[in-house]
Write a structure and sequence with these properties.
This protein is an alpha/beta fold. It has 23 helices and nine strands.
């Protein structure tokens, strides 16, 4: 009995001791930092689209609203469903002992490599005081060509709420840990997710301080776009061009904001010195340096992320340097200096928010007024177009077609599964036998990027030239693009698949040399096995001479020319993976056949697709390429 009493007493004392140490270990460390009386702090939540200090209205406002020094706690929540409990259970994997920020088998995505290094730069600017934690989302969404669109859209809705709920829950925990009542942050374009976060925070006594306009020139959460007027004012009913003019008009009338600036002294004074204790405020802490180490490396040890990291310096100042270099190039009047035609290489810095669109827009306008400047202004406005489209059609990002009549269309049905896999793999690996396409896809593998015009070529080729589903390309680009943006990517691929709001680049020629690659330098760089091919040779026919572009059409190049250049088709450069003319003909025939069976409420009297434009459910006949229209027999 005495022995039992002593044992019970010992366990009680041990339990109380452990409770005390657990209860007070964190306040003790905070008191050590803040002299035993921590003031009310403010959380500044850095997010994927705004990893910057300057022109960050949320950070600037938090500093302005602070009544004392060292009151700002900067945080970042790394959200990934790659290792969630639900996903691992679905795949039959055991639970992980230690949560990981990325899929440990693949090493994550190209954008995650960029983000990890950008966070490292941000942490350096914050003098090592960025608190980083993992947020585990329990729903995994996989966009693919075989999906049930209704079910997948529902999954995306659940994913949004799961992500919002998990993020808000962690924010509440952090606020309690550091004695904070407010969270300052820049909003994303996902209005549903943003409302969920605000609601959850408020319900738990935390005041959200969201700020808009971080990712676009115009804040579409507070503006109703006059879509009907925009579309009806264009002779072809093509939304893109008049929308760009609409954005330019708004910017001219309302002016651009001068980005808020924060001095180094202001930043140093305002940010709390966590003295190495940043991990203690997070539920699942993760060191920034460990993130940089882990992302971009497969379970087998292949460090594929190295080439991407080397291609993109990620400190905030690097974005500004890239902008300055591009603005200087606009002053160069020699077209040969612009072979990729205004490929600014600014998109990753815009996507991750190291540059704001206002910074870029203001910078371009400062150069002057000429055709190149105007062309790039239009591209910046085109980014806004994708966000406005996503507001109008939120399910676009989950793979739902804007043009509802095409929902059942699925490329690749005219071939067996093995042929479909072969074509898709050849496209992904840059081994299709079509040099411009291969050059772009190889650059994507190495740098996680390709110029806009090459993206249009590669996406058109997948859908028309290979006859494959556009969703396959959408998924691949989401994984491999360092500048991946869900609004931009989904819009581009919907247009490539002829199901988007404005499929203006249908029928793009992927076999003809582009004006911006007159020298052939682009293809020669990324397809070095073709580097020694001449630009063109003449083939003497019976009554005329046919000129062949050897670099862009190796399949039509005379054997002796190939041999002299060291090219052996099928050995060191692939044969064409398919007869693209047949695939293209089948694709358009299938679309026309499908449209011929549509009810009258899907096509107007001019054979244009009728598309719903807004909450009033007004359907408008939009630009529909002639190749998709039903042709009357002659």
């Amino acid at each position: 009995m005495n022995r039992l009493f002593v044992t019970s007493s010992f366990l009680l004392i041990l339990s109380l001791s452990l409770q005390r140490s657990c209860s007070f270990s964190f306040p003790i460390s905070i008191n050590r930092i803040h002299n035993h009386d921590p003031p009310a702090r403010k959380i500044v939540w850095f997010r994927d689209h705004a990893l910057r200090i300057h022109d960050n209205e949320a950070l600037a406002s938090a500093i302005k609203d602070s009544s004392s020094s060292s009151s700002i706690v900067p945080i970042y929540l790394w959200t990934s469903s790659a290792n969630s409990a639900a996903e691992r259970k679905k795949r039959g994997h055991p639970p992980v002992r230690k949560p990981m920020p990325i899929n440990e088998r693949t090493g994550g995505t190209a954008r995650e490599v960029f983000m990890a290094n950008a966070l490292d730069g941000l942490n350096s600017t914050l003098r090592g005081n960025l608190a980083l934690g993992l947020v585990d989302v329990d729903i995994d969404v996989n966009i693919n060509s075989d999906m049930d669109v209704e079910a997948d859209t529902d999954m995306h809705t659940k994913m949004r709420f799961s992500k919002a709920s998990a993020s808000a829950k962690e924010l509440i925990s952090i606020c309690h840990n550091v004695n904070a009542k407010e969270v300052y942050y820049l909003k994303t374009h996902d209005e549903t997710e943003e409302k969920d976060i605000e609601t959850i925070l408020k319900e738990n006594g935390i005041e959200p301080r969201p700020y808009g306009g971080a990712f676009s020139l115009i804040d579409y959460s507070t503006r109703t776009v006059p879509w009907k007027d925009i579309v009806m004012g264009h002779p072809w009913r093509s939304p893109l061009i008049p929308f760009v003019d609409y954005v330019k008009k708004v910017m001219d009338e309302e002016g651009t904001k001068e980005g808020v600036s924060i001095t180094e002294n202001e930043l140093e004074k305002a940010v709390a010195d966590l003295s190495g204790n940043a991990a203690q405020i997070m539920s699942l802490p993760y060191r920034v340096e460990d993130l940089v180490r882990d992302v971009g490396k497969t379970a087998g040890g292949t460090q594929w992320g190295k080439s991407i990291a080397a291609s993109w310096p990620t400190k905030e100042g690097e974005g500004k340097r890239a902008l300055s270099a591009f603005l200087e190039s606009l002053d160069v009047k020699d077209d040969e200096m612009k072979r990729t035609h205004l490929a600014s290489r600014l998109s990753p810095y815009l996507a991750r928010g190291l540059l704001s669109p206002q910074q870029v827009y203001n910078g371009i306008l400062s150069v002057g007024d000429d055709a190149d400047v105007d062309s790039f202004v239009r591209r910046i406005c085109w980014r806004d177009y994708t966000y406005a489209v996503v507001k109008l059609y939120p399910d676009v990002t989950s793979g739902r077609s804007i043009r509802n009549g095409y929902e059942s269309m699925d490329g690749g049905t005219q071939m067996d599964s093995n042929e479909r896999k072969k074509r898709l793999q050849s496209w992904k690996s840059g081994s299709t036998g079509f040099p411009l396409v291969d050059a772009g896809m190889r650059q994507l593998q190495v740098e996680g990027w390709m110029p806009q015009k090459v993206r249009l070529v590669c996406s058109t080729f997948l859908v028309e030239g290979l006859g494959l589903p556009w969703r396959d390309g959408m998924k691949h680009f989401a994984e491999f693009l360092v500048d991946f943006d869900v609004a931009i990517n989904s819009n581009m691929w919907q247009n490539a698949g002829c199901v988007g709001l404005d499929p203006y680049y249908i029928g793009m020629n992927y076999k003809r040399r582009m004006y911006w690659d007159n020298s052939g330098d682009y293809v020669r760089r990324w397809c070095p096995e073709l580097a020694n091919l001449p630009d063109a040779v003449g083939i003497q026919l019976e009554k005329t001479t046919n000129t062949v572009d050897c670099l862009y059409e190796p399949w039509a190049t005379p054997p002796d020319v190939l041999k002299e250049a060291g090219v052996t088709l099928g050995v060191n450069y692939p044969h064409k993976v398919c007869d693209d003319r047949v695939s293209r003909s089948l694709f358009f025939s299938e679309v026309r056949e499908m449209r011929s069976k549509w009810p009258s409420n899907l096509i107007d009297d001019k054979k244009r697709d009728l598309v719903s434009m807004g909450s009033d459910d007004i359907s408008i006949g939009l630009f529909t390429p002639r190749a998709l229209q039903i042709r009357k027999p002659r």
